[in-house]
Design brief:
Layout: E1 7-10, H1 15-27, E2 32-33, H2 45-55, E3 59-62, H3 70-75, H4 77-97, E4 102-106, H5 135-155, E5 159-164, E6 166-168, H6 181-194, E7 199-203, E8 209-210, E9 212-214, H7 215-228, E10 235-237, E11 243-244, H8 245-256, E12 261-265, E13 274-275, H9 280-285, H10 293-303
Parallel strand pairs: 1-2, 1-3, 3-4, 4-5, 5-10, 6-9, 7-12, 8-13
Antiparallel strand pairs: 8-11
Helix pairs in contact: 1-7, 2-4, 4-5, 6-8, 8-10
The structure holds guanosine-5'-diphosphate-beta-L-fucopyranose.
Guanosine-5'-diphosphate-beta-L-fucopyranose (GFB) binds near residues 184, 203, 268 and 269.
């Protein structure tokens, strides 16, 4: 990518998009095209077409999506399915129509079967039933992957799809009802420490294992793949290591400095038992994650405005 090429980062205010913008700016890209949701509604096909027709971005990072944690996903399958399909269809078809040179589509590790062999290889896709708590979101993302592959096959579009594992970082969603586990536990621990609460509540059994990648690592990997990967096949992005949720909670406790007890809310779902990506394809290309979980969480805690949390 030329340093002055127009690059559209869709979803630039979110966890992933904001990290991609930081990474691009660090390298010296000077022509970023950014639109807030108020300026451009990605669910509006006419608005999206008009935007691509006028601004003609050459490169696109597709980081805009309706996302959420396990409860949000299971409570709102209609919104997770339809909003993501609309955003993707509008963006991918307009990007193709208006000659985008290369596009990176962000999927998710939940596209893989619930009981896929671990670590999960890219060729596990569509080999078994999905995890029910996020089936709607996963099917939307699988449709996005398929559309990227179809546009390449039928029209030669250079669209790639990358599958990140569970993410965290600055600008995450800290709303306890809709967030993912890591920001939720950070907020719960902080609040419990400040209010001298005797315990904090953890959903499910604490035994599911998850892999956590810092958004800055994901952004570096995305830039790397934009420069070095041109295949229709999906590619995983992760750290190569995972951790039980209970151990994540203990790590966050030690970072926040909260020594109370952890109680389990068994009425909440565990979701898939394990979700660890096989990252050998990415490693073979020459990219590895750099930010350790402890350092990453410590920095997010330091950087985040916690004043509204208690
Ligand atoms: O991060 P999370 O919501 O998403 O939950 P998934 C991960 C695990 O942490 C589950 C447990 O076993 C939760 O039950 N957990 C414990 C909590 N305490 C909490 C809490 O306070 N809040 C939350 N949110 N979880 C999502 C998918 O699945 O992962 C999405 O629903 C997406 O589609 C995303 O793919 C990456 O890893 O289970």
């Amino acid at each position: 990518m030329d340093l002055t090429a127009p690059i559209f980062v869709a979803g630039h205010r979110g966890l992933v998009g904001s990290a991609i913008v930081r990474a691009l700016e660090r390298v010296g890209y000077s022509n970023l095209v950014l639109r807030s949701r108020a300026e451009l509604d990605l669910q509006d096909v006419h608005a999206v077409k008009a935007f691509f027709a006028e601004r003609r971005p050459e490169y696109v990072f597709m980081a805009a999506a309706k996302v959420g944690g396990i409860l949000a996903n299971s409570a709102q399958p209609v919104e997770f399915l339809t909003q993501n399909l609309q955003i993707q269809n509008n963006m991918l078809l307009s990007a193709h129509e208006f000659g985008v040179r290369k596009l990176l589509f962000l999927g998710s590790s939940c596209i893989y079967p619930k009981l896929a062999p671990q670590p999960i290889r890219e060729d596990s896709l569509l080999t078994g039933p999905l995890e029910p708590t996020n089936e709607a979101y996963a099917i939307a993302k699988i449709a996005g992957i398929t559309l990227c592959q179809a546009l390449r096959q039928e029209y030669g579009a250079n669209f790639i799809s990358v599958m990140p594992t569970n993410l965290y970082g600055p600008n995450d969603n800290f709303d306890l009802k809709t967030s993912h586990v890591l920001p939720a536990l950070l907020r719960k621990c902080h609040t419990a420490r400040i209010t001298h609460a005797p315990s904090l509540e953890l959903w499910g059994t604490g035994s599911p294992r998850r892999e956590f990648l810092h958004a800055d690592d994901l952004a570096e990997a995305s830039l790397f793949l934009m420069e070095n990967y041109d295949s229709p096949e999906i590619i995983n992005i992760g750290t190569g290591g995972d951790i039980p949720i209970i151990d994540l909670a203990r790590l966050i406790q030690s970072i926040v400095g909260y020594e109370g007890e952890i109680v389990f809310d068994a009425s909440k779902p565990d979701g898939t038992p394990r979700k660890l990506l096989d990252v050998s394809k990415l490693h073979a290309l020459g990219w590895k994650a750099r930010i350790s979980l402890e350092k990453g969480i410590t920095e997010v805690y330091r950087q985040t405005d916690t004043s509204g949390w208690v």
